[in-house]
Every structure is written in C-alpha cells, then in structure tokens.
Amino acid sequence: MTPPPPEVGIVVVAPQSLANIAEVPGRVQAVRTAEVRARVDGIVQKRVYGEGSDVEAGQVLFVIDPRELRARVSAVEAALARAEATAANAAQDVERYKGLIEDQAISRQEYDAALARLRTAQADVAQTRAELESAKLSLSYTTVTAPISGRAGRAFVTEGALVSAASATLLTRIEQLDPVYVNFSQSSSYMLAIRRDIAAGTLSVPQLGRVEVSLFLEDGSEYPHRGHLDFLDLAIDESTGTAAVRAEVPNPDRVLLPGQFVRARIAAGVRPNTFLVPQRAVQVGAGGTSVFVVDANDSIEVRRIRTGAMQDGQWVVLEGLQAGDRVVVDGMQKIAPGMPVRIAQAPAESGAAEGR
C-alpha cells in the first residue's frame, strides 16, 4: 500500500511595501566640542564654574591674575597721553609757521620740518592707540569665559597654576550634548547594493535629512527620541572598506554621552513588491539561500531567493518569489524536491509587516 503524501504547513506570500531597515553599531559624539585654553600668561586665581555642570556661552569659567596686565594698560595709556600732547604741540607749530611763511619770516625748509614732526607725532598716536587696544584685549583674556553653551568637564588646572599663552595651556573642555551626533559606517558592498536597487527601481530612498534613525542602548532598550541622517561620506575608507555615516539625534535628557556605544536602526527607504516569510522557512547552505515551494501540481520545488534584513522574526525576500507562491513553513523534514505533498491546513497569507 502506497503511503499518503506527507503533510506540510504553508503560507501564501503577498507583495508588500516594506521599510528597508539597516542595523549598525555606532558611537555617540558631542555636536560641538570646545577646548578652553589660556590666551595670556599668568597665575590662575579662581575656578568659577562647577566641574561637570552646564554652562552658558559667555559664562565666566576661570580668572587669571590681571594685575600685571592692568599695569601694562596704565603704562600704555600714559604713553598715549604723551604722544597726543606731542602731536598737539606739533600741530600748533604748523599753524604758527603758516602765517610766518606767508610773511617770509621763516624758510620753506623750516615749515616742511614742522609738518614732518606733526605727521610723525600723529603716527605715534595711532601706534600707541593700537598698543592700548592690544593691552586691553590681553587684559580681557584674564577673565576666561565659555565660548559655547554645553556641559563643562573637569578642570585641568587649579588655583595657583601658571598658565601660558605660548603653549596654550588647556583649562577645560565644553561639550554640547543636545543634540548629539551618532557616527557609524556602512560597507562599500552595502552602499553598492543600495545604489543598484535605487537604479533598478526596487528601492525608494528619501532625501538624506529625512532618513529616520532609531537608537538602541547597551541594555537593549530603545532610546525614546528619533533622529535623522545628516551626513554621508562620498569616499570609501581604504583601510576599512566602509563609508562614514552620521546621524543627528535629540538628547534633551542627556541620556546619550560622548563615546557611548549604541545600535542604530536606519529606515533607509522603502522597498515595494517585497515579501516576508517566517525565519523557519528559509534554508541557508553552501549553495545559497532557498525555500521549499508547493507548485501547481502540489509537488515540492526548491526556489533560490535573495534575502534582505530580518524584520520581527521574518526574512525580507528581495528576489525569487512571486505573489501567490505557497512557501512551506512546517514539515520540511519529511519532504524532498519533486515529492508530492498534502496541505495540512487552509493556506494563510504570510503576515503583513508594516515598515518601521
């Protein structure tokens, strides 16, 4: 007696428009980082800010002893007053010589010499004013302020430390943490496949600034705020074979910190006319990826497929299936290519999955 054909469970696949999801590891980076350095020589008198606190642009961070620079400003102010007095006296001489030269009481040479002394005195005034401006600018550098708003790190100097403008002594760093950047990379083969699919019309990609990015933290929890891509390098790194990609993500609660590891889920466009099949239906071997399909004669056929990423426990099938194909999901241990089978239950369409 001939045994009955084995029973198999199937799903009937239907085309869907699915989000093209890519998951990559990334590192958090502050959107702005400012190194606060000394711009004058002197002794640190006071650290005004609290280490690890949020500061505003223009807020005072350190005070460097200003007495030496104040003395320099006073000396230059005195030199300026002397230069202005000399220039005023030279101007009076020129005015007096104008009347005398008209009466031919003095020679033209004496008048020209007085005029030259006036011009020299005026140049001295201009030079001394520039020196005074420079001295006042240096004096202002004794009050060290924050160049940007953000979180100030630990201080690298203490009160009494000698700082130098020549070596640009590092005082502290400020990092702007809202928003933050997340840096990651994609392989050149992935970028090539994306370009090929776009050219073939099998992938619709929005503008760079509209590509949504979700983050998952190291404990597996999803970060509540979503960001978007804002940079894609057009060059491939020769040492790694990858292209640099960056996302900008809101960080109002300061949950993300520079250097932190995250996983980024990128919604890189939409793929129309794609299929979802359960993970257990897909076989991966040395010859590639395949599924068992029940043909019109209720016999088993091996179908080679090309898969994308996995979504919610199901493989995204990019090539190899057509609408209405009956894909075997149960009973695969008892079947072989060309074998007749019985459908164990009424065919059910594969579960639709909305692109995330």
Question: Which features characterize this protein?
Answer:
single chain; alpha+beta; 6-stranded antiparallel β-barrel; 4-stranded antiparallel sheet; elongated
Quick gist of this model?
This protein has 356 residues and is an alpha+beta fold. The chain contains three helices and 20 strands. The radius of gyration is 38 Å and the shape is elongated.
In terms of topology, how is this protein built?
Blueprint: E1 7-12, E2 16-37, E3 42-47, E4 54-55, E5 60-64, H1 67-102, H2 108-140, E6 143-145, E7 150-152, E8 162-163, E9 170-187, H3 188-200, E10 212-216, E11 227-232, E12 242-249, E13 261-278, E14 283-285, E15 288-294, E16 300-311, E17 314-319, E18 326-330, E19 342-343, E20 348-349
Parallel strand pairs: 1-19, 1-20
Antiparallel strand pairs: 1-18, 2-9, 2-13, 3-5, 3-8, 4-7, 5-6, 7-9, 9-12, 10-11, 10-13, 11-12, 13-17, 14-15, 15-16, 15-18, 16-17
Helix pairs in contact: 1-2
As a percent range, the share of strand residues is: 35-45%
Low-confidence stretches: 351-356
Query: What structural category arises from helix and sheet content?
Result: alpha+beta
Mean pLDDT: 84
Shape: elongated
Tell me the major beta sheet: 6 strands, antiparallel, barrel
Task: Name the helix and strand elements from N-terminus to C-terminus, one letter apiece.
Answer: EEEEEHHEEEEHEEEEEEEEEEE
**How would you write the strand order of the largest sheet?**
2-9-12-11-10-13
Radius of gyration: 38 Å
How far is the N terminus from the C terminus?
52 Å
> What is the number of strand segments?
20
